[in-house]
Design goal:
- The chain has 543 residues and is mostly helical.
- The protein is built from 23 helices and 5 strands.
- Helix 20 links the parallel strand 1 (443-446) and strand 2 (461-462).
- The N and C termini lie far apart (73 Å).
- The radius of gyration is 27 Å and the shape is globular.
């Protein structure tokens, strides 16, 4: 590697300490949000029954590897938010290490330091490193997948020259033996598919890179180039493997394949992810990433690999699968940060040369020095804004803010404490609660089925107008869904104790219609107890 061995160990230790502090501090302070509660609920079911199932009995294969890790953490350390989130934090710390080492190997030690620092402190990476879901694991495996592809295709050869494949006993190895070298890559892809099904689209970096190699080889020496044939064989072999995999998936689970192709019918918004990056991280960050893209293009094969790993999955998600969610491109975000670190690493190197050489010679600053200062100023502004000042910045997330780039987090533990409170315990509004034994006989209506099932109990009904129209039962809990406000009013008019619980966001969405607004007003006026937080609401009606 190109790291300065006098300093690289200290760089690595400092980066790991910084990444660990930001991801592990107060890790179990917040309640689960919806997807975390689903992950924990499946892990709980696995420990009880040996099956990865939701309360409805439906299997949930997506994110299976992280669910298994969560279950094992629950087995050895007890069931808690901390136990569910520690694996994500550890994968975030390890990914910081890989980003630092490989960025240094590809582009030099200063770029590696910049990339490692950005990954350690950036709000999106810190946020997903503090959430008990599979995204941190998926990103870690994606980095290993890219590194494996690099080692297989390039044998760590840097720059433009492309050598012939190694010879065995004076002859080129056979095609089968050369394809066997892809086994490590296939293993990482298989693990990534167990981590998340969206890895199918993440693998698009590899054909994009092979096409870039083919174009470069054709331009350099037409089809006579020694690397052209090898790249073409890898490309065709990958295409055949992809077709075989899709065929196997269709045979095993045709409904899932049909659902995937059904996403192609959604309306397109090609600029969605570019707009997400600009709105959440600012123009300065986007400018650094685009400048880094140009620099990566000019740096040859390592730059091409990083460029394809960063942008190919994002382009595929933007142009081919118009089912847009911010977390769908998270696995590629580490390489976007490497691109943003390229101009920053160049500027740091330029300033180091200025202070070590030019300043000692009393030479005047050049345009290169001025440009380096400008790049550092832009980078500093972006880091300060995103890490320290933004509402969803790193500082806010680490301090325990319940509004993050991933999702707003409701205080479900607070809601559970009220719902299961012992006699004489006062709520925030000063009302005293009854014995928790009556809760099993009360009617529980929820706007958020999974967190309710995890923290309170399985709800009896789903609040109207918070789930897609036409569904009679919630698919994850098999809870009956109230069709309209009239059905909810009948429950409120019945005798007995009724609890209504959910996130404020869901209630506000349901209240946009006239009937939904009237139902909300009735709950506000007639409930005997109301507990409202920043992101959560609980109503208690006792007749």
């Amino acid at each position: 590697m190109t790291l300065d061995r006098r300093y690289w160990l200290w760089d690595m230790l400092l980066l790991l300490a910084l990444a660990g502090l930001l991801r592990l501090h107060g890790l179990g302070a917040l309640s689960f949000y919806y997807d975390e509660a689903e992950n924990a609920l499946v892990a709980r079911t696995y420990l009880q029954t040996g099956h990865f199932e939701l309360p409805s009995g439906k299997s949930e294969p997506n994110g299976l590897l992280y669910k298994w890790l969560t279950a094992e953490m629950f087995r050895f350390f007890g069931e808690s938010e901390w136990s569910a989130r520690v694996p994500a934090a550890l994968f975030g710390i390890l990914t910081t290490l890989w980003i630092y080492l490989w960025s240094s190997h590809w582009f030099g030690s200063w770029t590696g330091r910049a990339a490692g620092f950005l990954f350690a402190v950036w709000p999106w990476t810190v946020t997903w490193g503090r959430i008990g879901r599979f995204y941190g694991l998926q990103q870690f495996l994606f980095v290993l997948m890219v590194v494996s592809a690099w080692k297989i295709l390039e044998c760590n050869c840097l720059g433009h020259p492309m050598a012939e494949p190694p010879k065995v006993s004076g002859r080129k190895p056979g095609l089968a033996l050369r394809l066997l070298r892809l086994a490590p890559l296939a293993g990482w892809i298989a693990l990534s598919l167990l981590a998340s099904a969206t890895t199918v689209l993440a693998v698009s970096f590899l054909p994009a890179y092979l096409l870039m190699r083919l174009a470069w080889c054709w331009r350099r020496g037409k089809s006579q180039d020694c690397e052209f044939g090898r790249s073409l064989r890898y490309f065709l072999s990958g295409a055949a493997a992809s077709v075989a995999t899709l065929t196997l998936l269709w045979v095993l689970n045709p409904d899932a394949v049909y659902a995937g192709f059904g996403l192609l019918k959604l309306p397109y918004s090609p600029g969605y992810y570019a707009l997400f990056l600009r709105e959440n991280f600012g123009l300065a960050f986007l400018a650094l990433a685009l400048a880094g893209t140009v620099m990566a293009w000019r740096k040859g094969r390592p730059g091409w690999m990083v460029l394809c790993a960063a942008w190919a999955p994002i382009l595929v998600h933007s142009l081919l699968v118009p089912h847009y969610r911010d977390r769908f491109i998270y696995h590629a975000f580490a390489f976007v940060l490497i691109l943003a670190a390229l101009p920053l690493g160049w500027a740091l190197e330029a300033l180091k040369d200025f202070f070590n050489v030019r300043l000692s010679l009393r030479a005047r600053p050049t345009w290169r020095d001025a440009l380096a200062v400008a790049v550092l100023a832009v980078a500093a502004q972006s880091v300060i804004q995103n890490v320290l000042l933004a509402e969803c910045g790193t500082a806010a997330v680490v301090r325990g803010s319940r509004k993050t780039l991933a999702r707003e987090v409701a205080d479900w533990r607070g809601l559970a404490a009220i719902f299961n409170a012992d006699p004489g315990v006062q709520t925030k509004e000063g009302a005293r609660t009854e014995a928790s034994g009556s809760r099993s006989r009360s009617t529980l209506v929820s706007a958020d089925a999974i967190p309710t099932a995890y923290y309170l109990r399985l709800p009896d009904f789903m609040y109207p107008d918070v789930d897609p129209k036409g569904m009679e039962f919630h698919p994850h809990t098999a809870t009956p869904i109230l069709k309209d406000a009239t059905a909810m009013n009948r429950i409120l008019d019945s005798t007995g104790e009724v609890w209504v619980v959910g996130t404020r966001r869901k209630f506000e969405a349901a209240s946009r219609s006239a009937s939904g607004a009237r139902l909300w007003n009735r709950l506000m006026e007639e409930s005997s107890e109301i507990w409202q937080g920043q992101h959560e609401v609980l109503f208690h009606r006792r007749r």
